[in-house]
């Protein structure tokens, strides 16, 4: 019985870990479908390939904000929802102390919601946390 419970728990953890990643891909497509938040895929490829001096289009922050607001990481005014953010990060990071550290370090409100969204993803990257952005960006 304990082995079955352990297996179910492991499978559940794997599914939970994939859910934010799967949602990220779907939301990327939704944000790409809006002309206001569309960013040429070549930009994402350059970022993903770690090219230096990538010139980001003026609406790059709007695209990232589209992603974070649709994941409920930020509200429509740009304020971070730390509880939701911790839950999503917790799907891919099992160490609660690291989750708390990353949330406190990365989910920082700024006057400009688009800038806050971009800074949030950059901070996740610095902390080696992937909620889907590494597949896309």
TrEMBL record:
<dbReference type="Pfam" id="PF01395">
    <property type="entry name" value="PBP_GOBP"/>
</dbReference>
<dbReference type="GO" id="GO:0005549">
    <property type="term" value="F:odorant binding"/>
</dbReference>
<feature type="signal peptide">
    <location>
        <begin position="1"/>
        <end position="17"/>
    </location>
</feature>
<protein>
    <submittedName>
        <fullName>Minus-C odorant binding protein 1</fullName>
    </submittedName>
</protein>
<dbReference type="InterPro" id="IPR006170">
    <property type="entry name" value="PBP/GOBP"/>
</dbReference>
<dbReference type="InterPro" id="IPR036728">
    <property type="entry name" value="PBP_GOBP_sf"/>
</dbReference>
<keyword id="KW-0732">Signal</keyword>
């Amino acid at each position: 019985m304990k082995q079955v419970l352990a297996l179910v728990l492991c499978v559940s953890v794997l599914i939970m870990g994939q859910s934010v990643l799967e949602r990220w891909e779907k939301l990327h497509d939704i944000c790409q479908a809006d002309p206001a938040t569309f960013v040429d895929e070549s930009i994402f490829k350059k970022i993903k390939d770690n090219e230096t001096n990538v010139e980001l289009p003026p609406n790059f922050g709007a695209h990232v904000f589209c992603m974070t607001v649709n994941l409920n990481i930020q509200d429509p005014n740009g304020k971070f929802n730390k509880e939701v953010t911790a839950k999503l990060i917790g799907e891919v990071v099992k160490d609660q102390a690291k989750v708390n550290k990353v949330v406190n370090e990365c989910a920082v409100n700024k006057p400009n919601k688009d800038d806050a969204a971009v800074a949030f993803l950059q901070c996740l990257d610095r902390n080696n946390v992937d909620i889907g952005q590494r597949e896309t960006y």
